[in-house]
Amino acid sequence: MKKKLVMALALSMSLTLAACGSSSSSSSEEADTTVEESTEETEETEETEGTEEAEAEEAEAEEVTVMTYEEYVAAAVDDPVVVETYVQAKQSWWDDQATLYTQDADGAYFIYNATCSEDDYALLEVGTKIRVTGYKSEWSGEVEIIDATIEILDDDTYVADTVDVTDLLADDSLIDYQNQYVSFTGMTVEPSTDANGNEVAFLYGWDGSGEAGSDSDLYFNVSVNGETYTFTVEYYLCDETTEVYQAVTELEVGSVIDMEGFLYWYEGVNPHITSVTVVE
Questions:
Q1: DSSP strand E in the chain: where?
Q2: Which sign, positive or negative, has the C-alpha torsion 183, 273, 92, 99?
Q3: By CB atoms within 10 Å of each CB, which of 11, 69, 217, 236 scores lowest?
Q4: For the segment 227-275, what is each residue's pLDDT rounded down to a tens digit?
């Protein structure tokens, strides 16, 4: 009888201990699960916060300060510049680089060899708004933006009217109109001297060393108020297929002409002419 009682007690204790062990294991597993869930939530929170911070930093980096024309003029040569302007003419494209005459309501910007794909270049119609990011530069008096990139904007369009600067040709204030779309009226064609010493109305190339069909710029002299100036038909801007190129090759010394073009600079004023009309 005692033996049976002892065995019963032993069995009872064994079951009790097993139950306690099972309860302890269950509690431990529940604790581990809680810790894991808490860790995952912390990691997710940290990851979200990190992503938000990265996005904020990226947005801040994308914020661009666009200069006014006045700020651009005040910037020093070699300074980085960012301007928003409008295409007025396309001079050339090759090797994913574009040269453009651009202007807004306050002033003009000559963009030299900016990075630009051929597809984007085709989209640059007169009046197209663009953002130009590059560096201010100067070459023989011509202020330009170089090492630039171009972003096409769809905000609006702008096409500049010509400003008659004939009476400013001998004035120091003419520089304020550099690269703008301008006009000249009542100017007289003066003789140039070609490579053979002959007096002619225009030259193929600055020194007369070019010839018809040689992709040469045209140079011609015109005068007003007793002063003579050299104007140019830039071949890449207006080649031999254009009306202005043909018109200049037909000029005669003594003719009086009106002109339109861009107020380019090379060791002094050297307009790139896009239109010539003989008035006398």
A1: 80-94, 97-103, 108-115, 128-139, 142-157, 163-164, 181-190, 192-193, 199-200, 203-204, 218-224, 227-233, 256-262, 272-278
A2: negative
A3: 11
A4: 999 999 999 999 999 999 999 999 999 999 999 999 999 999 999 999 9
Cβ proximity of 181 and 162 under 8 Å: yes
Query: What is each CA distance from 193 to 90, 205, 268, in whole angstroms?
Result: 31, 12, 20
Whether the CB-CB separation of 133 and 146 falls below 8 Å is answered with no
Per the CB < 8 A criterion, the answer to whether 274 and 260 are in contact is yes
Q: What digits encode the pLDDT tens for the residues 103-157?
A: 999 999 999 999 999 999 999 999 999 999 999 999 999 999 999 999 999 989 9
- Tokens at 254, concatenated: 């003594």
